[in-house]
Fold this sequence. Notes:
alpha/beta
Amino acid sequence: METPPDHAYPDHWEADVVLRDGGTARIRPITTADAERLVSFYEQVSDESKYYRFFAPYPRLSDRDVHRFTHHDYVDRVGLAVTVGGEFIATVRYDRIDARGLPATAPADEAEVAFLVQDAHQGRGVASALLEHIAAVARERGIRRFAAEVLPANSKMIKVFRDAGYTQKRSFEDGSVRLTLDLEPTAESLAVQRGREQRAEAHSVQRLLTPGSVAVVGTGRVPGGVGRTVLRNLLEAGFTGRVYAVNHAFAEDLRALDGVPAFRSVAAIGDPVDLAVLAVPARQVPEAVADCGRHGVRGLVVLSAGYAESGPEGLERQRELVRQARSYGMRIIGPNAFGIINTAEAVRLNASLAPEPPDRGRIGLFTQSGAIGIALLSGLYRRGAGLSSFISAGNRADVSGNDILQYWYEDPDTDVALLYLESIGNPRKFTRLARRTAALKPVVVVKGARHSGSAPPGHAVPVTRIPDATVSALLRQAGVIRVDTVTELVDAGLLLASQPLPAGPRVAILGNSESLGLLTYDACLTEGLRPSPPRDLTTAATPEDFRAALTLALSDPAVDAVVVTAIPHVGETGTTDPADGGALGTVLRETVTSVPGKPVAVVHVEIEGLAEALAVVERSARGPAGSAPAPTAAPPSAPPRPAGAPPAPTTSPASAAPPASAASPASAGPPAPAASGRIPAYPAAERAVRALAEAVRYAQWRRQSAEPGKVPEYLDDAIDESAAAALIARLLGDAPDPHGVPLGAADTRELLGLYGIPVRPTLPAPGPDDAVAAANRLGYPVALKTTAPHLRHRSDLGGVRLDLADEAQLRLAHRELTETLGGPAELRPVVQAMAPRGVDTVVRAAIDAAAGAVLSFGLAGAPSELLGDLAHRLVPATDRDVAEQIRSIRSAPLLFGWRGSTPVDTPALEELLLRVSRLVDDHPEIVSVTLEPVVVATRGLTVLGANVRLAPPPARGDLGPRSLPSY
């Protein structure tokens, strides 16, 4: 029986998604206002698809059908639609049923589900995306299983269910296949979801970087200006596709501009347009986007400014731009972007404002700043480095660094990924993608706006509360090479793109300057490398002397990398020969080629021609402005396609190449040099050594990540997950405080005890008699300490008295404490049995809505509080993670027998960190845990203080259905 909706419209179910072919679509609940859209949609579905949906010929929907399919209560009856251009392209509906298959209400936890996808959009992954979203909706409404009746001939729909990764059952009844899906997410369903996300987002970026045709909207009628500059750069790069100039102000009789067809609108172009570059004022952008959307343009690069970087009105303008573009299935780079470049020979795309376009190479570069993009392009160009692709995202309202990582992960033309980031909109996803990419190729990041506490103007993203030092530690855990400056970004990128990864930290230093060799030696020690004493070839060394010394070093099995230092050769007449630089560079390249396998870097001081000779620069052939080949003749118009349907895919050697396999043997080893014999050169020893040290640390991470750590099985013996969940539910209650509640001491001990974390109890001691009674109960010796927040753990202020051996000492300590620091009501003193002596440490875990759960460790007191000497790891942590975490703090020697002291029980400390990690991973309601102090003795450890805070669990976007962010 139909009933009117009894729940408000659930706008949080609305989402933009990227489909398999890289286009976008919107998923939203169906409402009563959708009757006409539903009828129009159904009329465009083939008779065969209708038969598969209703198991009988069903040419049209009756009025009763339309009413039924557009009226939902959003609880027991829910319908979702996928829209492109505002029109339906697919629908899904569930109806809650009881055990007999009849309509039901809660607590019935099963629902019947059915899909219908317009034929023109089948094969785009629409049904798979819809299944993810309708399953999330169902779980929210208390539904745990889906039942579906599918005809055996409907193999596409059966495959959608089969490939989803959910636990399922299948039976054959009355001529149809009955499928039952358990909607609880599994490791397999999450892997399937993320695999689909990667392919879709990578394809969406590929569509932007490999267009078959480009329209520059806003091309000026006279030379100069942004649009005309982009047009010129496209032509000078030799773009292999078709180029169009568009400006609504063109004269009606204008047919060509700079040798390319000219039009007053994109709609006037008779052929498909894959990419549009918008170089018009912000107020004209909506009209231009609509023009592109109606014509079926696949993606936009918006160079226009005047959006979120200009204030609240601009932010709303930016949001509307994204909504409008996505409604047509288009993705956006920008606004306020600098442009994009793809140097692949089959594409040769330069849709940017870059004054010095890069040569073809193996480095991918992403930047959120146009000015930084110019600087990076210029620096790479001067040093002879080439790029595979360049993306300047500006305000990155849509396409972000996450999308680019998805693309670079499988891009065969990119060996090294360089990113300049000013904000990370989804840190949890970024670290996940970076870890996966870094397992195959280096990812180097420099982050601006580290200390401002907010995103830069124009970046409308959530702001994480995690300190920058913590972010840096988490990035390194994910294998990301984090550098501090754009100069270091280029330095590291040059070495990683041209040299193999070092097998270890052992460095040979050779050169013709003793002083420069010593500077290099000191820099190596500073960076934690293991340099051999520098070999001084003297200032009289010839290129052949360098050849012999370098050959010897590269052949030495005790050497992992070589740094060559060089100053100008001074002859007997006291002059230098300009040809010496080129000769030395040639010799060094020949030597590296003849003895490959180890990285080499060169530090030189004012040697003319050396850097160029080392780079083996072969500039791409480019003719003068306007001399690029004329745009290809437009082919006959393709047959019309339904609104929003994808155009036929274009392929190129770059796009058709198979992706690198994560399972291939090469994935665990160092990548081959991109350009044989090319050697990076640096003007300072510190810069060369820092880049080399980053390569050493990254290579070590690669080797370790090939065999990831694990959570030991023995932890399960002392963990009662279900009892902990029941306790948490009781403590939070039916209406939990969204701000969270701190647990009392008894509840804290009980909860931690369920995970094998005993906390030494304390007893209140408001008066001396109470203190004595507590000590008699606990046993001497005891400690007397205050629990007032401003004095907690402050032994330096006298708030902690230790090793009180008898009643007299305890009474004296209690009197001194209350007379010196305040009354019992203020101090709240407690008595606790003494723990074995050891090293005081602190263990914390905190939940950040954006980054997830973070596990922190350090020594208690000044090291962690004053010096910030803490190590951080993402949860869930493995045995390898926590072992490295303990050893990574600067004060770690105090745990391992510093200056003759007895080493403490670090295995017990590692187990404690694993238990805390498991606790917060199992129970997202635990938003913070602090164990302080944790006294680690020579055998075992003691947790003397603990605090736990509970709150309703934050939303986990990474576990929900795929969707594009909406800022």
